[in-house]
Amino acid sequence: MTVAASSPPSRLPLRGAEGVTAKRKARKVRERGDGALAALFIAPALLGFLVFLLWPTLRGIYLSFTRFNLLTPAKWVGLDNYIRMVHDPIFWDSLKVTVEYVVINIGVQTVSALVIAVLLQRLTQSAVLRGIVLAPYLMSNVVAGVVWLWMLDNQLGIGNEIIQSLGLDRVPFLADETWAIPTIALINVWRHVGYTALLLFAGLQAIPNDMYEAAKVDGASEWRMFWRITMPLLRPVLAVVLIMTVIGSFQVFDTVAVTTSGGPANATNVLQYYIYGSAFGRFQFGYASAMSVALLAVLSAITVIQYRITRAGQTDLG
């Protein structure tokens, strides 16, 4: 009797295992290739972050514990700069002025931007109108400050010419202690409100129109839909916008520098301007660094509190 030869039964499973192994190796090679490509694209931004953000921050924290004036090597003084800062009345006055500016700027800007965003969504979505709203943001803070300085000049400004033509007394908007900070805050509101409105408008675009249509069928008014639908669903975007605008408001400098230079009588001596004067006016880089670190700590605390109170990382959209 002849017995037919047969191939070893283990050959096919072995080939199958080899195929799976080869696929895994190929996948790992692709993943390494994708990782290398991603690292290549991230490298410029990472280099910029290290050179222009992380290193200056660490350097500033170190200098805050030293006495440094550019002409001599930094001398370690420990907490002397922070002790001086705590007992410095000008520092606390500058912080008070900055908080006043932030409250006015954020309050007016947020409400105005929200109104503009809702009107853009509910009435018209014209790209031309959105461009007009964004136009002031395309102007630099320095240029905007100079233009408004001329317009609000107490003698020749068109603003005071209009006020006088109405039979009212001229207003020293940027030369009076009472008017200076509100005026600077409103100048920056004018410049930034369009950008803030477009951010909120983008958030409104994510809200389904079906909700508004269903509310209209139920007889809800525009005001009720705003408070019951728009505000709850816009909360995450609004929270992030508030965090960004608060941080930016605490860093106000250029508008003050070109309009009032901290005056009159230090009425607009915001914290950033005081830090700049300490560093580049009196060459007290150690003390200026200490105030910068204090501002960093304040902004970090405010950001964390805002993030948790507003629940910025959560959304009500299902």
From TrEMBL:
<feature type="transmembrane region" description="Helical">
    <location>
        <begin position="132"/>
        <end position="151"/>
    </location>
</feature>
<feature type="transmembrane region" description="Helical">
    <location>
        <begin position="233"/>
        <end position="253"/>
    </location>
</feature>
<feature type="domain" description="ABC transmembrane type-1">
    <location>
        <begin position="95"/>
        <end position="306"/>
    </location>
</feature>
<dbReference type="InterPro" id="IPR000515">
    <property type="entry name" value="MetI-like"/>
</dbReference>
<keyword id="KW-1003">Cell membrane</keyword>
<keyword id="KW-0472">Membrane</keyword>
<keyword id="KW-1133">Transmembrane helix</keyword>
<dbReference type="GO" id="GO:0005886">
    <property type="term" value="C:plasma membrane"/>
</dbReference>
<protein>
    <submittedName>
        <fullName>Carbohydrate ABC transporter membrane protein</fullName>
    </submittedName>
</protein>
<keyword id="KW-0812">Transmembrane</keyword>
<dbReference type="Pfam" id="PF00528">
    <property type="entry name" value="BPD_transp_1"/>
</dbReference>
<comment type="similarity">
    <text>Belongs to the binding-protein-dependent transport system permease family.</text>
</comment>
<feature type="transmembrane region" description="Helical">
    <location>
        <begin position="179"/>
        <end position="202"/>
    </location>
</feature>
<feature type="transmembrane region" description="Helical">
    <location>
        <begin position="101"/>
        <end position="120"/>
    </location>
</feature>
<feature type="transmembrane region" description="Helical">
    <location>
        <begin position="285"/>
        <end position="305"/>
    </location>
</feature>
<dbReference type="InterPro" id="IPR051393">
    <property type="entry name" value="ABC_transporter_permease"/>
</dbReference>
<keyword id="KW-0813">Transport</keyword>
<dbReference type="GO" id="GO:0055085">
    <property type="term" value="P:transmembrane transport"/>
</dbReference>
<dbReference type="InterPro" id="IPR035906">
    <property type="entry name" value="MetI-like_sf"/>
</dbReference>
<feature type="transmembrane region" description="Helical">
    <location>
        <begin position="35"/>
        <end position="55"/>
    </location>
</feature>
